[in-house]
Write a structure and sequence with these properties.
homodimer, mainly alpha, Tetracycline Repressor, domain 2
Chain lengths: 201, 201
């Protein structure tokens, strides 16, 4: 990396932390300057606007999630292990957070409704689409392999699994209590078992 | 109501809508003035600060939830019907929203972490405590009546049910698609049946 690329990366790392805790609207330019220890000009050298910085900080935050998810998926080939990796990811996020403010998809979805920040909302939709597609694809493939009970609604499983872990992130954030995530992922493990065929158990 | 009380109530109604869509940080004084059609002085006549107004607007929003929940609970005496009323409440919130921005507990929990707004966060904790206590009390009483399978963890059920509906609210907000809430509450109905004894079915 060149010096400029290094600075850019350092700004993103710090900005991702600030936006994670304070949100897009809650994070002021002063917060960002304090965190990055740069001047306004120093930041604008690399990012055209606060919105531009927020969009790239969102992508950076999602890269952290994707990298960890990839780790948990490594070597997992069967339907059950791949679905469980998704619950393990969110359990690990409360045990060993990558960002102080929790899940960027949750934060962005709640903060950027409708007209308040359409570009950021689109990013959160895309990230959530990726998770839904992962779950739907895993179940569809699992059904073809005979791992999944006939009649299992892959889209419904995706909605339930994502709703449950994101709501548990909210409870974790609200109470600073990991038990909500533990209980919710335990429930999802039982749910996953309920639509798998015996042979994969 | 006196004229003053009427104005106060009208400010709260409008402010609750604004905070619901824009959040505490996202809502500017200009947004509040535009919505209430009042001057700054007109608002400050009734509320000491934006924070004070936000706290009371939160209470007002939760009153709307409580009133509707009470309707759904009316005449429901058995364990199953009372637990299902909680899922019906959230299903109704996407079918017939009381506020444009979704659930105030979700919005506040996500926006007011830690040091950013402790008073508002405490309000959201209290509201969420009320829901948890309702679920725990219903299950504990149900276990005494023989309606609930032995070994059912009431606290775990409360975490799972609240996480699921709040996460479904997030998905509904993100995609503007009610199906996430329908699928999630359908799942919760099946979950509730799974820990009830045959006799209440």
């Amino acid at each position: 990396m060149t010096k400029g690329q290094e600075t850019r990366r350092a700004i993103l790392e710090q900005a991702a932390q600030v936006f994670s805790v304070r949100g897009y609207f809650g994070a002021s330019m002063d917060d960002l300057l304090q965190a990055t220890k740069l001047t306004k000009g120093g930041i604008y050298n690399h990012f055209a606007s606060k919105e531009n910085l927020a969009l790239e900080a969102f992508d950076y935050a999602m890269e952290l999630y994707s990298a960890r998810f990839k780790e948990f998926l490594a070597g997992k080939r069967n339907t059950r292990d791949r679905l469980l990796a998704f619950t393990t990811l969110f359990r690990s996020v409360v045990d060993d957070p990558m960002l102080p403010g929790g899940c960027p998809v949750l934060n962005t979805a709640v903060e950027s409704s409708d007209d308040t920040n359409p570009a950021l909302r689109e990013r959160a939709q895309q990230a959530c689409d990726d998770w839904r597609e992962f779950i739907v694809r895993t179940i569809t493939r699992g059904a073809e392999l005979g791992d999944v009970r006939p009649g299992t609604d892959a889209q419904a499983v995706a909605s339930v699994m994502i709703a449950a872990v994101e709501g548990a992130m909210m409870l974790h954030k609200l109470y600073d209590d990991k038990r909500h995530m533990y209980r919710t992922t335990d429930h999802l493990v039982a749910f996953i078992e309920s639509f798998l065929q015996e042979k994969t158990l």
